[in-house]
Amino acid sequence: MNEQRPAAQVVLARNPGPDTMRKIKQFAESRGCGRVNFEIDPGIIGGVVIYIGDTVYDGSVKSRLEHIKGSL
Q1: pLDDT tens per residue, range 9-31
Q2: How far is CA 62 from CA 19, 30, 40, 59, in A?
Q3: Which of 6, 59, 60, 67 gets the most CB atoms within 10 Å of its CB?
Q4: Which domain of life is it from (predicted)?
Q5: DSSP letters of 14-47?
Q6: Which bin fits 8, alpha (ψ -120 to 50), beta or left (φ > 0)?
Q7: End-to-end alpha-carbon separation of the chain, Å?
Q8: Whether pTM exceeds 0.70
Q9: 38 contacts 50 by C-beta, under 8 angstroms
């Protein structure tokens, strides 16, 4: 059975530079991803959100602000 590797969906607030893209691709590949799809969403304010299957790596400024707001 030839199992396909999952794709990573990466959301950034702005277009990444080549070094950032390389680091994100390495991160995703180290978690078994076969390809990486990039999406720009200024609504996350800054940082990055990476979706791999059911796992979410959320390093966005928006989520950090929401976490701080929830703890007040």
Answers
A1: 999 999 999 999 999 999 999 99
A2: 23, 26, 14, 9
A3: 60
A4: Bacteria
A5: SPPPHHHHHHHHHHHHHTT-SEEEEEE-GGG-SS
A6: beta
A7: 51
A8: yes
A9: no
